[in-house]
Write a structure and sequence with these properties.
It is a single chain. Helix 2 crosses helix 3. This protein is of the alpha+beta class. It starts with 6 loop residues before the first helix and ends with a strand. The strands form four sheets. A 14-stranded antiparallel beta barrel has the order 1-4-5-7-8-9-10-14-15-18-19-21-22-25. Helices cover about 15% and strands about 45% of the residues.
Protein backbone atom coordinates (compact mmCIF):
# COMPACT_ATOMS: atom_id res chain seq x y z
CA UNK A 1 0.00 0.00 0.00
CA UNK A 2 1.73 3.18 -1.14
CA UNK A 3 1.06 6.39 0.77
CA UNK A 4 3.44 8.75 -0.99
CA UNK A 5 0.95 11.62 -0.86
CA UNK A 6 0.71 11.55 2.91
CA UNK A 7 3.34 14.14 3.79
CA UNK A 8 0.82 16.69 5.03
CA UNK A 9 -1.08 14.21 7.17
CA UNK A 10 2.18 12.87 8.61
CA UNK A 11 3.17 16.32 9.84
CA UNK A 12 -0.14 16.53 11.70
CA UNK A 13 1.13 13.95 14.14
CA UNK A 14 3.40 16.68 15.52
CA UNK A 15 0.99 19.59 15.93
CA UNK A 16 1.85 22.03 18.72
CA UNK A 17 0.05 21.75 22.07
CA UNK A 18 1.04 18.08 22.42
CA UNK A 19 2.55 18.58 25.89
CA UNK A 20 1.55 21.98 27.23
CA UNK A 21 0.20 20.76 30.58
CA UNK A 22 2.01 17.70 31.89
CA UNK A 23 3.41 16.29 35.09
CA UNK A 24 5.60 18.40 37.36
CA UNK A 25 7.24 21.17 35.29
CA UNK A 26 7.07 19.37 31.91
CA UNK A 27 5.79 21.55 29.04
CA UNK A 28 6.90 21.11 25.44
CA UNK A 29 7.29 17.33 25.23
CA UNK A 30 10.71 17.81 23.52
CA UNK A 31 9.68 16.37 20.16
CA UNK A 32 12.30 15.35 17.57
CA UNK A 33 9.80 15.19 14.69
CA UNK A 34 11.08 18.27 12.87
CA UNK A 35 14.57 16.79 12.59
CA UNK A 36 13.12 13.60 11.11
CA UNK A 37 11.27 15.35 8.27
CA UNK A 38 12.60 14.56 4.75
CA UNK A 39 14.89 17.04 2.97
CA UNK A 40 15.39 20.60 4.18
CA UNK A 41 12.74 21.80 6.58
CA UNK A 42 11.86 24.77 8.82
CA UNK A 43 9.03 25.27 11.29
CA UNK A 44 7.97 27.76 13.95
CA UNK A 45 5.13 27.34 16.40
CA UNK A 46 3.48 28.67 19.51
CA UNK A 47 1.42 26.92 22.19
CA UNK A 48 -0.95 28.62 24.63
CA UNK A 49 -2.51 27.16 27.77
CA UNK A 50 -5.54 28.43 29.68
CA UNK A 51 -5.79 26.34 32.89
CA UNK A 52 -8.30 26.50 35.74
CA UNK A 53 -6.91 24.98 38.95
CA UNK A 54 -8.89 25.64 42.13
CA UNK A 55 -9.32 23.78 45.39
CA UNK A 56 -10.02 23.93 49.11
CA UNK A 57 -8.02 23.91 52.31
CA UNK A 58 -7.92 20.42 53.78
CA UNK A 59 -5.75 17.94 55.64
CA UNK A 60 -3.61 19.64 58.28
CA UNK A 61 -5.18 23.05 57.59
CA UNK A 62 -7.33 24.20 60.50
CA UNK A 63 -9.81 25.91 58.16
CA UNK A 64 -11.58 24.78 54.98
CA UNK A 65 -11.68 27.95 52.91
CA UNK A 66 -11.99 27.87 49.12
CA UNK A 67 -8.89 28.45 46.97
CA UNK A 68 -9.56 30.27 43.71
CA UNK A 69 -7.86 29.59 40.37
CA UNK A 70 -4.12 29.65 41.08
CA UNK A 71 -2.75 28.60 37.66
CA UNK A 72 -1.78 31.45 35.35
CA UNK A 73 -2.17 31.36 31.57
CA UNK A 74 1.07 31.00 29.66
CA UNK A 75 2.46 30.56 26.16
CA UNK A 76 5.72 29.30 24.77
CA UNK A 77 7.27 29.27 21.28
CA UNK A 78 9.22 26.59 19.44
CA UNK A 79 11.26 26.51 16.23
CA UNK A 80 13.34 24.07 14.24
CA UNK A 81 15.66 24.06 11.24
CA UNK A 82 16.74 20.82 9.58
CA UNK A 83 19.26 20.66 6.74
CA UNK A 84 19.91 17.55 4.69
CA UNK A 85 23.58 18.18 3.90
CA UNK A 86 23.91 15.17 1.58
CA UNK A 87 22.57 11.62 1.25
CA UNK A 88 24.29 10.51 4.46
CA UNK A 89 24.44 13.48 6.80
CA UNK A 90 21.97 15.97 8.23
CA UNK A 91 22.06 18.78 10.79
CA UNK A 92 19.36 20.37 12.90
CA UNK A 93 18.78 23.23 15.33
CA UNK A 94 15.81 22.73 17.67
CA UNK A 95 14.53 25.42 20.05
CA UNK A 96 11.89 24.85 22.70
CA UNK A 97 11.00 25.70 26.30
CA UNK A 98 10.81 22.25 27.90
CA UNK A 99 10.10 23.00 31.56
CA UNK A 100 8.28 25.77 33.37
CA UNK A 101 5.69 26.89 35.89
CA UNK A 102 3.35 29.88 36.31
CA UNK A 103 1.11 30.07 39.36
CA UNK A 104 -0.17 32.66 41.84
CA UNK A 105 -2.51 32.30 44.81
CA UNK A 106 -4.95 35.07 45.74
CA UNK A 107 -7.96 35.59 47.99
CA UNK A 108 -8.20 34.51 51.61
CA UNK A 109 -6.60 31.13 52.18
CA UNK A 110 -3.55 29.37 53.61
CA UNK A 111 -1.36 30.43 50.64
CA UNK A 112 -1.96 34.18 51.03
CA UNK A 113 -0.37 36.07 53.92
CA UNK A 114 -2.84 37.54 56.40
CA UNK A 115 -0.90 39.61 58.95
CA UNK A 116 -3.92 39.74 61.23
CA UNK A 117 -4.15 36.00 61.78
CA UNK A 118 -1.02 34.25 60.46
CA UNK A 119 1.52 33.00 62.98
CA UNK A 120 5.10 31.82 62.77
CA UNK A 121 4.12 28.40 64.11
CA UNK A 122 0.74 26.72 63.72
CA UNK A 123 -1.31 25.67 66.73
CA UNK A 124 -0.45 22.06 65.93
CA UNK A 125 3.28 22.80 65.88
CA UNK A 126 3.11 24.65 69.21
CA UNK A 127 1.16 21.78 70.77
CA UNK A 128 3.82 19.39 69.51
CA UNK A 129 6.56 21.47 71.14
CA UNK A 130 4.66 21.65 74.42
CA UNK A 131 4.02 17.89 74.37
CA UNK A 132 7.70 17.19 73.70
CA UNK A 133 8.84 19.38 76.60
CA UNK A 134 6.21 17.85 78.90
CA UNK A 135 7.39 14.31 78.11
CA UNK A 136 11.00 15.30 78.67
CA UNK A 137 10.08 16.75 82.07
CA UNK A 138 8.22 13.61 83.13
CA UNK A 139 11.09 11.36 82.08
CA UNK A 140 13.62 13.58 83.90
CA UNK A 141 11.53 13.27 87.10
CA UNK A 142 11.17 9.50 86.70
CA UNK A 143 7.37 9.78 86.38
CA UNK A 144 5.20 7.62 84.12
CA UNK A 145 4.01 9.10 80.82
CA UNK A 146 0.27 8.62 80.38
CA UNK A 147 -2.69 10.79 79.48
CA UNK A 148 -3.20 12.03 83.02
CA UNK A 149 0.41 12.88 83.82
CA UNK A 150 0.95 14.32 80.35
CA UNK A 151 -2.02 16.67 80.69
CA UNK A 152 -0.67 17.97 84.02
CA UNK A 153 2.87 18.36 82.66
CA UNK A 154 1.62 20.22 79.56
CA UNK A 155 -0.23 22.65 81.81
CA UNK A 156 2.95 23.25 83.77
CA UNK A 157 4.92 23.88 80.57
CA UNK A 158 2.31 26.36 79.32
CA UNK A 159 2.35 28.22 82.67
CA UNK A 160 6.13 28.30 82.97
CA UNK A 161 7.92 31.67 82.66
CA UNK A 162 10.17 30.22 79.94
CA UNK A 163 7.22 29.28 77.73
CA UNK A 164 5.40 32.54 78.42
CA UNK A 165 8.51 34.40 77.30
CA UNK A 166 8.74 32.22 74.19
CA UNK A 167 5.05 32.77 73.37
CA UNK A 168 5.53 36.52 73.68
CA UNK A 169 8.54 36.46 71.36
CA UNK A 170 6.61 34.36 68.82
CA UNK A 171 3.78 36.91 68.90
CA UNK A 172 6.23 39.69 68.08
CA UNK A 173 7.81 37.54 65.33
CA UNK A 174 4.41 37.31 63.63
CA UNK A 175 4.85 40.95 62.60
CA UNK A 176 7.83 39.93 60.43
CA UNK A 177 5.94 37.52 58.19
CA UNK A 178 5.47 38.17 54.48
CA UNK A 179 2.68 39.94 52.64
CA UNK A 180 0.82 39.05 49.45
CA UNK A 181 0.21 35.67 47.85
CA UNK A 182 2.35 32.64 47.02
CA UNK A 183 3.74 32.90 43.50
CA UNK A 184 6.06 30.88 41.28
CA UNK A 185 7.44 31.54 37.79
CA UNK A 186 10.03 29.24 36.22
CA UNK A 187 11.23 29.42 32.60
CA UNK A 188 13.68 27.27 30.67
CA UNK A 189 15.02 27.37 27.11
CA UNK A 190 16.67 24.60 25.12
CA UNK A 191 18.79 24.83 21.99
CA UNK A 192 19.67 21.40 20.62
CA UNK A 193 22.40 20.90 18.00
CA UNK A 194 21.62 17.61 16.27
CA UNK A 195 23.94 15.73 13.88
CA UNK A 196 22.41 12.86 11.94
CA UNK A 197 23.87 9.95 9.98
CA UNK A 198 21.72 8.00 7.50
CA UNK A 199 23.53 4.86 6.30
CA UNK A 200 20.55 4.07 4.04
CA UNK A 201 17.02 5.31 3.40
CA UNK A 202 15.62 3.38 6.37
CA UNK A 203 17.89 4.25 9.30
CA UNK A 204 18.81 7.55 10.95
CA UNK A 205 21.21 7.80 13.90
CA UNK A 206 21.54 11.18 15.60
CA UNK A 207 23.12 12.88 18.58
CA UNK A 208 24.33 16.26 19.75
CA UNK A 209 24.84 18.76 22.58
CA UNK A 210 22.04 20.70 24.24
CA UNK A 211 22.35 24.19 25.73
CA UNK A 212 19.77 24.97 28.40
CA UNK A 213 18.97 28.09 30.42
CA UNK A 214 16.94 28.27 33.64
CA UNK A 215 15.56 31.26 35.50
CA UNK A 216 12.74 31.82 37.95
CA UNK A 217 11.18 33.47 40.97
CA UNK A 218 9.45 31.86 43.95
CA UNK A 219 7.55 33.58 46.77
CA UNK A 220 6.03 31.59 49.64
CA UNK A 221 3.24 33.24 51.58
CA UNK A 222 0.52 32.23 54.00
CA UNK A 223 -0.02 30.08 57.07
CA UNK A 224 0.66 26.86 55.10
CA UNK A 225 4.38 27.68 54.98
CA UNK A 226 4.78 28.56 58.69
CA UNK A 227 8.33 29.92 59.21
CA UNK A 228 8.73 30.31 55.44
CA UNK A 229 5.83 32.77 55.17
CA UNK A 230 7.88 35.59 53.62
CA UNK A 231 10.47 33.50 51.73
CA UNK A 232 11.60 34.79 48.30
CA UNK A 233 14.03 33.24 45.84
CA UNK A 234 15.27 34.79 42.62
CA UNK A 235 17.01 32.34 40.28
CA UNK A 236 19.16 34.35 37.91
CA UNK A 237 19.34 32.95 34.39
CA UNK A 238 22.03 30.29 34.25
CA UNK A 239 23.23 27.99 31.47
CA UNK A 240 23.95 24.27 31.55
CA UNK A 241 25.03 21.74 28.93
CA UNK A 242 23.63 18.28 28.26
CA UNK A 243 23.23 15.94 25.31
CA UNK A 244 20.77 13.86 23.35
CA UNK A 245 21.03 10.70 21.27
CA UNK A 246 18.59 8.61 19.31
CA UNK A 247 17.77 6.42 16.37
CA UNK A 248 14.94 6.32 13.85
CA UNK A 249 13.66 3.77 11.37
CA UNK A 250 11.32 4.46 8.47
CA UNK A 251 9.66 2.84 5.46
CA UNK A 252 8.39 5.81 3.42
CA UNK A 253 6.24 3.67 1.11
CA UNK A 254 3.86 2.79 3.95
CA UNK A 255 4.38 6.00 5.98
CA UNK A 256 6.03 4.04 8.79
CA UNK A 257 8.34 5.97 11.05
CA UNK A 258 9.62 5.08 14.53
CA UNK A 259 12.16 6.90 16.70
CA UNK A 260 13.64 6.58 20.18
CA UNK A 261 15.35 9.60 21.75
CA UNK A 262 17.19 9.98 25.05
CA UNK A 263 17.91 13.37 26.63
CA UNK A 264 20.37 13.65 29.51
CA UNK A 265 19.86 15.50 32.76
CA UNK A 266 21.45 18.95 32.86
CA UNK A 267 23.13 20.55 35.90
CA UNK A 268 22.88 24.25 36.70
CA UNK A 269 25.03 25.68 39.50
CA UNK A 270 23.96 29.14 40.57
CA UNK A 271 23.87 31.61 43.44
CA UNK A 272 20.16 32.08 44.16
CA UNK A 273 19.22 35.40 45.73
CA UNK A 274 17.20 34.36 48.78
CA UNK A 275 15.41 36.37 51.42
CA UNK A 276 13.30 35.29 54.39
CA UNK A 277 11.53 38.19 56.07
CA UNK A 278 11.59 36.43 59.45
CA UNK A 279 15.40 36.67 59.44
CA UNK A 280 14.92 40.42 60.01
CA UNK A 281 13.34 39.70 63.42
CA UNK A 282 15.98 40.78 66.03
CA UNK A 283 14.92 38.12 68.51
CA UNK A 284 14.94 35.19 66.10
CA UNK A 285 18.05 33.57 67.58
CA UNK A 286 16.60 33.52 71.10
CA UNK A 287 13.25 32.24 69.83
CA UNK A 288 14.87 29.35 67.98
CA UNK A 289 17.06 28.60 70.96
CA UNK A 290 13.87 28.42 73.03
CA UNK A 291 12.61 25.86 70.55
CA UNK A 292 15.74 23.76 71.19
CA UNK A 293 17.32 24.51 67.82
CA UNK A 294 21.09 23.76 68.16
CA UNK A 295 23.38 26.80 68.14
CA UNK A 296 25.51 25.30 65.34
CA UNK A 297 22.50 25.28 63.04
CA UNK A 298 21.58 28.83 63.98
CA UNK A 299 24.98 30.04 62.78
CA UNK A 300 24.47 28.41 59.37
CA UNK A 301 21.19 30.20 58.63
CA UNK A 302 22.84 33.38 57.36
CA UNK A 303 25.59 31.66 55.36
CA UNK A 304 25.81 31.83 51.56
CA UNK A 305 26.49 29.14 48.98
CA UNK A 306 25.71 27.78 45.54
CA UNK A 307 22.63 25.78 44.62
CA UNK A 308 22.58 22.98 42.05
CA UNK A 309 19.43 22.56 39.97
CA UNK A 310 19.36 19.42 37.82
CA UNK A 311 16.67 19.18 35.14
CA UNK A 312 15.61 15.57 34.55
CA UNK A 313 16.59 12.99 31.96
CA UNK A 314 13.87 11.77 29.60
CA UNK A 315 13.05 9.26 26.85
CA UNK A 316 10.65 9.78 23.92
CA UNK A 317 9.30 6.97 21.76
CA UNK A 318 7.45 8.09 18.61
CA UNK A 319 5.66 5.86 16.14
CA UNK A 320 3.42 6.31 13.10
CA UNK A 321 2.25 4.11 10.26
CA UNK A 322 -0.17 4.17 7.38
CA UNK A 323 -3.40 2.31 8.06
CA UNK A 324 -5.24 3.03 4.80
CA UNK A 325 -4.95 5.34 1.81
CA UNK A 326 -4.21 8.92 2.97
CA UNK A 327 -4.51 7.96 6.65
CA UNK A 328 -1.89 7.47 9.38
CA UNK A 329 -2.06 6.40 12.99
CA UNK A 330 0.46 7.91 15.40
CA UNK A 331 1.54 7.54 19.02
CA UNK A 332 4.05 9.13 21.38
CA UNK A 333 5.22 7.71 24.72
CA UNK A 334 7.31 9.90 27.02
CA UNK A 335 9.11 9.13 30.30
CA UNK A 336 10.61 11.82 32.52
CA UNK A 337 12.68 11.04 35.61
CA UNK A 338 10.95 13.42 38.04
CA UNK A 339 11.35 11.02 40.96
CA UNK A 340 15.04 11.97 41.26
CA UNK A 341 14.37 15.70 40.83
CA UNK A 342 14.37 18.22 43.68
CA UNK A 343 15.18 21.87 44.33
CA UNK A 344 16.70 22.99 47.61
CA UNK A 345 18.03 26.56 47.43
CA UNK A 346 21.06 26.96 49.68
CA UNK A 347 19.64 29.20 52.41
CA UNK A 348 16.25 27.46 52.25
CA UNK A 349 18.08 24.22 52.98
CA UNK A 350 20.05 25.65 55.89
CA UNK A 351 16.88 27.00 57.50
CA UNK A 352 15.13 23.67 56.93
CA UNK A 353 18.00 21.83 58.65
CA UNK A 354 17.75 24.23 61.59
CA UNK A 355 13.98 23.98 62.11
CA UNK A 356 13.33 20.57 60.56
CA UNK A 357 13.35 18.89 63.93
CA UNK A 358 10.23 20.87 64.87
CA UNK A 359 8.27 19.08 62.13
CA UNK A 360 9.95 15.69 62.28
CA UNK A 361 12.46 16.42 59.50
CA UNK A 362 15.79 16.76 61.35
CA UNK A 363 17.79 16.53 58.11
CA UNK A 364 15.84 19.33 56.46
CA UNK A 365 13.62 19.24 53.39
CA UNK A 366 13.35 20.53 49.81
CA UNK A 367 11.45 23.44 48.33
CA UNK A 368 10.12 21.13 45.59
CA UNK A 369 10.35 17.38 45.02
CA UNK A 370 8.30 14.65 43.34
CA UNK A 371 7.62 11.08 44.38
CA UNK A 372 7.06 9.40 40.97
CA UNK A 373 8.37 9.47 37.42
CA UNK A 374 6.10 10.82 34.71
CA UNK A 375 4.66 8.66 31.95
CA UNK A 376 2.57 10.16 29.17
CA UNK A 377 0.95 8.78 26.02
CA UNK A 378 -0.53 10.67 23.08
CA UNK A 379 -2.17 8.76 20.22
CA UNK A 380 -4.42 9.53 17.30
CA UNK A 381 -5.20 9.40 13.61
CA UNK A 382 -4.32 11.89 10.86
CA UNK A 383 -5.99 11.98 7.46
CA UNK A 384 -5.39 13.90 4.26
CA UNK A 385 -8.76 15.36 3.25
CA UNK A 386 -7.72 16.96 -0.05
CA UNK A 387 -4.62 18.31 -1.78
CA UNK A 388 -4.66 21.32 0.55
CA UNK A 389 -6.39 20.14 3.72
CA UNK A 390 -5.69 17.51 6.38
CA UNK A 391 -6.91 16.89 9.91
CA UNK A 392 -6.31 14.76 12.98
CA UNK A 393 -7.91 13.63 16.23
CA UNK A 394 -5.98 12.50 19.30
CA UNK A 395 -6.32 11.38 22.89
CA UNK A 396 -3.70 11.77 25.61
CA UNK A 397 -2.95 10.56 29.13
CA UNK A 398 -0.39 11.69 31.68
CA UNK A 399 0.41 9.82 34.90
CA UNK A 400 1.45 12.84 36.93
CA UNK A 401 4.50 12.80 39.21
CA UNK A 402 2.92 11.55 42.41
CA UNK A 403 0.17 12.45 44.87
CA UNK A 404 0.30 14.32 47.23
CA UNK A 405 2.24 16.83 45.15
CA UNK A 406 3.77 20.28 45.65
CA UNK A 407 1.51 23.25 46.37
CA UNK A 408 3.29 25.04 43.50
CA UNK A 409 1.69 22.69 40.92
CA UNK A 410 -1.24 20.83 42.50
CA UNK A 411 -2.47 18.47 39.76
CA UNK A 412 -1.87 14.78 39.16
CA UNK A 413 -1.65 14.13 35.42
CA UNK A 414 -4.56 14.40 32.99
CA UNK A 415 -6.66 12.98 30.20
CA UNK A 416 -7.13 15.03 27.04
CA UNK A 417 -8.74 15.03 23.60
CA UNK A 418 -7.48 17.07 20.67
CA UNK A 419 -8.40 18.20 17.18
CA UNK A 420 -6.00 19.50 14.51
CA UNK A 421 -6.36 21.04 11.07
CA UNK A 422 -3.71 21.77 8.47
CA UNK A 423 -3.83 23.92 5.34
CA UNK A 424 -1.14 23.63 2.65
CA UNK A 425 -1.40 26.46 0.10
CA UNK A 426 1.60 24.97 -1.77
CA UNK A 427 3.35 21.59 -1.60
CA UNK A 428 6.23 23.29 0.25
CA UNK A 429 4.29 25.24 2.90
CA UNK A 430 1.64 24.61 5.52
CA UNK A 431 -0.21 26.28 8.36
CA UNK A 432 -1.43 23.97 11.15
CA UNK A 433 -3.57 24.66 14.20
CA UNK A 434 -4.78 22.52 17.06
CA UNK A 435 -6.84 22.63 20.24
CA UNK A 436 -6.89 20.27 23.22
CA UNK A 437 -9.15 19.98 26.24
CA UNK A 438 -7.61 18.62 29.46
CA UNK A 439 -9.31 16.93 32.41
CA UNK A 440 -6.73 17.54 35.13
CA UNK A 441 -6.19 14.87 37.78
CA UNK A 442 -7.30 15.55 41.36
CA UNK A 443 -4.43 16.10 43.77
CA UNK A 444 -3.64 16.77 47.39
CA UNK A 445 -1.16 19.62 47.82
CA UNK A 446 1.64 19.53 50.38
CA UNK A 447 4.42 21.87 51.43
CA UNK A 448 8.10 20.96 51.24
CA UNK A 449 8.13 20.12 54.95
CA UNK A 450 5.36 17.53 54.34
CA UNK A 451 6.90 15.93 51.24
CA UNK A 452 7.46 12.21 51.57
CA UNK A 453 4.50 11.79 53.92
CA UNK A 454 0.75 11.52 53.41
CA UNK A 455 0.16 14.93 55.02
CA UNK A 456 -1.27 17.76 52.94
CA UNK A 457 -2.74 21.26 53.33
CA UNK A 458 -5.20 21.52 50.43
CA UNK A 459 -7.24 19.43 48.02
CA UNK A 460 -7.63 20.34 44.32
CA UNK A 461 -10.30 18.60 42.22
CA UNK A 462 -12.53 18.90 39.13
CA UNK A 463 -10.05 21.11 37.28
CA UNK A 464 -9.44 21.55 33.55
CA UNK A 465 -7.42 23.36 30.92
CA UNK A 466 -7.65 24.30 27.25
CA UNK A 467 -4.59 24.43 25.01
CA UNK A 468 -4.20 26.04 21.58
CA UNK A 469 -1.38 25.63 19.11
CA UNK A 470 -0.29 27.16 15.82
CA UNK A 471 2.56 26.06 13.57
CA UNK A 472 4.05 27.27 10.27
CA UNK A 473 6.15 24.91 8.16
CA UNK A 474 8.30 25.23 5.03
CA UNK A 475 10.05 22.51 3.02
CA UNK A 476 12.88 23.67 0.75
Amino acid sequence: MKLKHLSTAMILATLPATGVFAAALDRSGQSMSAFLQPGNYFEAGISILDPDVAGKEAGSSTTSRNIGDMADDYFFPSAALKLQLNDKFSFGLLYDQPFGSDAEYSGNNAFVSNPGSDSVLSAGAIDGIVTKKAKEALVAQGLPVNDQTLAIAKGQVLASPQFQQLAGALAVANNYLGTGGTKVEVDTQNLSFVFGFQPNQNFNFYAGPVLQTVKGNVSLRGQAYSLYNGYDANIKETTGVGWLAGAAYQIPEIALKASLTYRSEIDHKTNINEDLSLLNFPGLTSVLAGLDVPASKLQAINSEGKTTITTPQSVNLDFQTGIMANTVAFANVRWVNWKDFSIQPYKFGKVSEAVGGLVGRPNGFNLVEYSDDQWSVNAGVGRKLSDKWAGNVSVGWDSGAGNPVTTLGPTEGYWNVGLGLQYSPTPQTFLAGGVKYFWLGDAKAQTGAQAGSDQYVADFSDNNAIAYGLKLGYKF
